[in-house]
Amino acid sequence: MSYRSGKSSIINVVLYKLPPNETVFIPTTVTIKKHMLSFKNYQIWDLPGQIDYLEPNFDTESIFGGAGAMVWVLDAQDDYAEPVTRLTETVFSLQQLYPDIKYTVFIHKIDSLSNDFLEDIVSDIMQRIMDELNDLGLENPPISFYRTSVYDDSIYEGLSKVLQLMNSQQLPSLEALLNTIGASCKMEKVYLFDVYSKLYFASDTSPVHMEAYGVCSDYIDTIVDLSEIYGWDREKKQITDGNQTPEPESSESIINGIHGCCLYLKEMNKYLALIGLSKEPRFSDEKALVDYNVSVFQESLAAVLSRKPEV
Q: What is the pTM of this model?
């Protein structure tokens, strides 16, 4: 992490919906700040970039002992030589103590760089990091790279990939379920979104197109805004027959004619929603069948999420 690399801006834009152009007023992080992600009670810790966490007087266990992933934010517009060295030294040291941590590098603030210059910067950063880790004796380190900016959807894509790394044990089952629902309902792309952060917890295995993600993201914003105006605190349904088991209500929505697609949203639980994009002309006419298939998917999803991860 480098000084004023943009860590706090990322958190405020994604978790607290701060407009990106207001991030310049965020003060520098000087203490560890903890933030909650709504789904699965994941915590995001914002660590000050100017502190050396490998010093002997630091309680490394309390900071990294329970970590599943580390995101290192590099400012692509600044001198990154020293932060790259700190990154490789940190990864090498932590790998000896906590081999299960996965590492992600956000090559950040790419919005003002030309395409040619950006490609050179990204290539140089990746090459330096891999060379330095190899020199330290780490071959094939568990590290991935993403280009990010708070001014577009790239930051959501990067954080979504980190979220999926954290849930790697369940991810294959979720992708298989999403592939099945996509094929059965004739959807070109299917996402499982955390509604409040707009990060996608999983998607089917077809390629992710940022334009499609942007459409889904805008759709979620619309639904959330409408819910704040017209929503209510949903209690369990009132059951007149004492033999019936009460079930929570689940919201849904369908919109036609968005960039030639039909958008389908179905709430899965308190935090997750299924969103599918379909170009099938008769998709709306077959909504009853889609609803049935999605209800079966919802039951299977609950079964997958209820499994305890293997230690």
A: 0.90
**37-62 tens-digit pLDDT:** 877 778 999 998 888 888 888 888 98
pLDDT at 242 > cutoff 50: no
The torsion angles phi and psi of 69, rounded to 5 degrees, stand at: -150, 150
State residue 188's pLDDT score. Answer: 94
